[in-house]
Fold this protein.
Amino acid sequence: MFTEKFKIRAYELDTAFHLKVQHLFNFLIEVAANHAAELKFGAFEMIKHRLTWVLSRAHVQIDRYPLWRQEINIETWPALISDPFAIRDYRIRNDRNQEIGRATTSWMLMNFDTRRAVPLPDFLKEVHVSNRERAIDDPFEKLPLPEKAEFTRHFYIRLSDLDVNQHVYSVNYLEWALESMPESWLNSHRLSAFEINFRAESNFGDKVDVSSQEVETVGSKMALHVLHRQSDGRELARLRSFWVNR
C-alpha cells in the first residue's frame, strides 16, 4: 500500500470553499503515478520500452469534500491484474482518519508510437496484488448512453489540455461533462459519485461535443453523459454521474 498526503490549496476550491472534484481526480492520478514509480513501473520506466500508462475506467465515490487548508490522505494499492487491465483501488481519509471517499480505476498500457493498447508485460503480471477488501467492487460493465441530448456544450481542445501522452488529459473529460449540466442544476446539487469510461484519444485542435441527460432514479439523482469528436463523430468518453441536493 502507498499513502500520500495533500493539503487543499486556494486555487483548488469551488465557490463554497470545498475541493473541486476535478482536483480530487488529479490527486488520484498523481498518487497512482507516484506509487507506480516506487514499484519501478512508472512513466519513466515504461517509456524506455515505448509504452505509457493510460486510464481506461474510473469509479469515484465522495462522501464529503474537504475544505480549504484541510489535509487528506489517499491510500492506494494494486487490487487486481486482469490482462490487459491493471486495477488500482483507493481510500480517501481526512486528517482524523475518517474515510470520506473511495475509488477504483482500470489502467492499460499503450504503445507510444502506434497508439494502440498492448498486453501487460510478464513482469507486471507478477506484481503483488493486495488481499485487502476492494474499495469499490466494480466489474466495470458497459456504461449506458443518454437517450437524448437534453443539455449540450462544445469545447475546442487547446494545447494546455494535453498531457505527457500528447492527448487530452483524462480529468478534462470529467470537467467538460459536468459543465454541460445547467447552472441551476450545478448550484443546487453536489456530485456524490461518477463513473467514466475513456473510449478514444483526442488532440489539439479537435472540437468536442458533450451531450447529457438527467435520468429519473429511485432514491438518487443521476445524469448520463457522452463526448464525441465533432469531425468524425468518434465517441471519446461516456460517464454516469450521481448527485445529492446541496
The mean pLDDT is 95.
